[in-house]
Design a protein that fits this description.
The chain is an all-alpha fold. It has 2 domains: 64 residues; 122 residues, no CATH class. 30% of the residues are buried.
Length: 197
């Protein structure tokens, strides 16, 4: 084999390797966008770029895969549903207390499912793996609840917090503990949209 043939062969091999690398990178992005939905864009913005964001999202997936996330039993689901109805009824006379209890109730449901419930940001990151569409609802609701602790927010904002908490709460109660596929993400979006009414 002469030198020019060898150079052409090396260039072809490098071209194929580059094409494979680009393809795999695009597939990774496509997979993560599909998996995380709007959460993907939020993390890209927070991390300042796609490469860093994708690394963060893959680390989240690996962390959550090590957790023992399980669906709620029928009895647990019923107990949580009744507790939620109680908080919704409480909202009429005690909106601040209802929002505070709703925040705790969501954390309790997460704990019962197997999520660690320490730091809020870690909770939101963990829950984003299986509930990427409604995790933003959780962030909005939690931000309102936190603001209400330091300054009085309007009843309308408290109502918004209850609606946003309910979107995640419904997802936590009614999914079967499996990772979302496109149909489940669509179902989550429908519940989140319905909760926003």
């Amino acid at each position: 084999m002469n030198t020019s043939t060898m150079l052409v062969l090396i260039v072809v091999i490098l071209g194929i390797a580059a094409a494979v690398w680009i393809y795999l990178k695009k597939e990774r992005t496509k997979r993560l966008r599909s998996r995380f939905g709007p959460e993907y864009n939020r993390v890209v913005q927070a991390e300042g770029g796609g490469k860093q964001a994708e690394q963060v999202l893959e680390e989240r997936q690996k962390r959550v895969e090590r957790l023992d996330i399980k669906p709620l039993s029928s009895a647990e689901r019923e107990r949580f549903a009744q507790a939620w109805e109680h908080e919704q009824a409480r909202f009429v006379d005690q909106p601040r207390a209802a929002v505070e209890h709703a925040d705790r109730l969501v954390a309790d449901a997460m704990r019962a499912r197997g999520y660690p419930t320490g730091d809020f940001e870690q909770r939101a990151a963990d829950v984003s793996v299986a509930h990427p569409v409604v995790v933003e609802n959780y962030r909005v609701a939690h931000a309102i609840a936190l603001r209400d602790r330091s300054e009085e927010v309007s009843t309308e904002e408290l109502r918004e917090a209850m609606i946003q908490y309910r979107a995640l709460f419904d997802d936590l109660l009614h999914d079967d503990g499996t990772r979302p596929v496109s149909g489940e993400v669509s179902e989550s979006r429908a519940r989140a949209k319905e909760a926003g009414r």
